[in-house]
UniProtKB/TrEMBL annotation, chain A:
<dbReference type="InterPro" id="IPR000971">
    <property type="entry name" value="Globin"/>
</dbReference>
<dbReference type="InterPro" id="IPR050056">
    <property type="entry name" value="Hemoglobin_oxygen_transport"/>
</dbReference>
<keyword id="KW-0479">Metal-binding</keyword>
<comment type="similarity">
    <text>Belongs to the globin family.</text>
</comment>
<dbReference type="GO" id="GO:0019825">
    <property type="term" value="F:oxygen binding"/>
</dbReference>
<dbReference type="GO" id="GO:0005833">
    <property type="term" value="C:hemoglobin complex"/>
</dbReference>
<dbReference type="InterPro" id="IPR012292">
    <property type="entry name" value="Globin/Proto"/>
</dbReference>
<comment type="function">
    <text>Involved in oxygen transport from gills to the various peripheral tissues.</text>
</comment>
<dbReference type="GO" id="GO:0005344">
    <property type="term" value="F:oxygen carrier activity"/>
</dbReference>
Automatic annotation (TrEMBL), chain B:
<dbReference type="GO" id="GO:0031720">
    <property type="term" value="F:haptoglobin binding"/>
</dbReference>
<keyword id="KW-0479">Metal-binding</keyword>
<keyword id="KW-0408">Iron</keyword>
<dbReference type="GO" id="GO:0005344">
    <property type="term" value="F:oxygen carrier activity"/>
</dbReference>
<dbReference type="InterPro" id="IPR012292">
    <property type="entry name" value="Globin/Proto"/>
</dbReference>
<dbReference type="InterPro" id="IPR009050">
    <property type="entry name" value="Globin-like_sf"/>
</dbReference>
<keyword id="KW-0349">Heme</keyword>
<protein>
    <recommendedName>
        <fullName>Globin domain-containing protein</fullName>
    </recommendedName>
</protein>
<dbReference type="GO" id="GO:0005833">
    <property type="term" value="C:hemoglobin complex"/>
</dbReference>
Amino acid sequence: MTDTQRPFVQKTTEENADMSLSGKDKAVVKNFWGKVAPKAAEIGGEALGRMLTSYPQTKTYFSHWADLSPGSAQVKKHGATIMAAVGDAVSKIDDLTGGLSTLSELHAFKLRVDPANFRILAHNLILCMAMFFPGDFTPEVHLSVDKFLQNVAFALSEKYR
Amino acid sequence: MVKWTELERSTVKAIWEKVDIDDIGPQIWARVLIVYPWTERYFGSFGDLFTITAILKNDKVAAHGKVVLKALDKAVNNMDNMKRTYADLSQLHFQKLEVDPDSFRLLADCITITIACKLKSALSPQSQAIWQKFLYAVVDAMSSQYR
């Protein structure tokens, strides 16, 4: 595997339009997603449960659920929904803003989730991906996935104001 | 001052017992420098940090990872006294090393993720919550002299 140089190089216009995800980042994310996909629903449910447990302030968005404990049916189902959307974002990695525009509207106007929570969820998604695939989740993969989720969060925040 | 239940104390200790400082310390430190490369600003004297391979092979990075985890051991054994335990270290990081305290949060998250890689599902959601509460208390203590 070729070494990843520090990015002190001029980016192409195309790369700038993608908000800092390099060609290498995209390749790494897609490759890792290929491994994660079969467990995506499980990882999503696990991550959401952990987020609600470790960051109780996030429960304020789910007060309409009967059971917010990790492993509850609602948590698992919604976690799977979220991870399916992340998978969709992977397929739209070349244009996240365009691809996630409808989801952004949903989060901005209907759900009105404070965007700070996207970072909290990303942390828990990363933790679960690391937990399920410790051998594959190298620092290099961690870097690209972290950048990708940051870009997803940015695309989701686009319609907020 | 942070209050700790018996369950929280025993959970933190149980997790810490599974951490091999010599094994995990270097991994954590390399992960921070790779995932958050701006943290390299503090390590001009560490030599080659220019590529991921170089970071993973760097002896000074590995050594520093062990130093940091040994300091975390102090927190595990002084959970009721963290601000006082870390007052000098906090002062050092503020006045001499001039480290942005946001870096402590990044480090804390990398510690949790590396431990999750190691323990896998043995780190239950409840344990993760307790461990993170502990680490964020350490971050607070390390930030306490920044004024």
